[in-house]
Amino acid sequence: MLQLLLGIFGMLIVGSHPQAQPLALENIADGVYVHHGIHEDLSEGYHGDICNISFIVGSNGVAVIDTGGTLKTGQHFHETIRKVTRLPVLYVINTHVHPDHIYGNAAFTDDKPQFVGHAKLADAMELRKDAYARTHKEWLGDEFAGSEIIKPTLAIKDELTLDLGDRQLRLSAHPTAHTNTDLTVIDSKTNTLWTGDLLFVERTPSIDGDIKGWIAVAESLSQLTVAQVVPGHGPVVKDWKQAFIDQQRYLSTLLNDVRASIKKGEVMESAMNTAAASEKDRWALFGIVNRRNVNIIYPSLEWE
Ligand SMILES: [Zn+2]
């Protein structure tokens, strides 16, 4: 029997993507699975598997939440899903525009799912696709082969509920925060919240939207009553209130420190070395990400 099963899986793998390997999965609740990428920066040495990618199995089919940073990661994830269930993939949800979360989408096109995202996601993808393709070819070389942007076929302006049969997913689109395309998901059956990159655990939160908007959106998310939270990066947290407290402390320290630097007339380069320094031992990749955050927020805060 085991051999028969192995034979079936073997054929399936060979039949669709010859090199695909299953990814490590964490089964965090009934029908809910997460693969954790590793804490690596998007730059030289990047491998395309750094964020959390998840799937939820309902009685009618499967919803995927984020797909990884390359077609290859997406294909591996697809094969991994197929080892758990043969039900159709009905929805591929992107939590925001960042390339580590979306470039695996193309691995799911044959399933003909609805690709689901924030109402601003398609435009954001269009705006960034040339720059993303250029940098990713440089960083990843052959590993990036076949990776392409797949835009949403279902755009969320405010809220929408997706039906998987015995469970529903409530999707909420947010105003500009981590990015201008942030979408969160709550599974009705297990009361699990996916924040995308509106919450970072362990890894330094990286800003690409509006720091004040992010603090406000995170504050409202922290008021929800959910059982557990899947962040964009880092472990799934049951003590998720504390995770939001940690992130709010980092973001507000960064905001206050940069404001103080501007007030004192310090140039941006010097603020990059000092802002939020009290947080540096608390987060992975702090040096590079914190400097980049200062670089992004300093110019806009100058005009407050
Ligand atoms: Zn992100």
Q: Summarize model confidence as the mean pLDDT.
A: 92
Strand order of the largest sheet: 1-2-3-4-5-6-7
General shape? globular
In DSSP terms (H or I, runs of 4 or more residues), the helix count works out at 8
Description:
It is a single chain. This protein is an alpha/beta fold and 304 residues long. It has a single domain, classed as Ribonuclease Z/Hydroxyacylglutathione hydrolase-like (Metallo-beta-lactamase, Chain A, 4-Layer Sandwich). Helix 6 runs antiparallel to helix 7 and helix 6 (240-264) crosses helix 8 (286-301). Helices cover 37% and strands 21% of the residues. A hairpin with a 4-residue loop joins strand 8 and strand 9 (168-173).
Topology:
Blueprint (H helix, E strand, L loop, with lengths): L1 H15 L9 E4 L2 E5 L15 E6 L4 E4 L5 H14 L4 E5 L5 H4 L11 E5 L2 H20 L13 E3 L2 E5 L4 E6 L9 E5 L4 E9 L10 H11 L6 E6 L6 H25 L3 H7 L11 H16 L3
Parallel strand pairs: 4-5, 5-6, 6-7, 11-12
Antiparallel strand pairs: 1-2, 2-3, 3-4, 8-9, 9-10, 10-11
Helix pairs in contact: 5-6, 6-7, 6-8, 7-8
Bound molecules: zinc ion.
The site of zinc ion has 5 residues, from loops.
Structure summary:
The chain is an alpha/beta fold and 304 residues long. The protein has eight helices and twelve strands. The longest helix is centred in the C-terminal third of the chain and has 25 residues.
What distinguishing features does this structure have?
304 residues; alpha/beta; Metallo-beta-lactamase, Chain A; seven-stranded mixed beta sheet; 37% helix; 21% strand; disordered N terminus; binds zinc ion
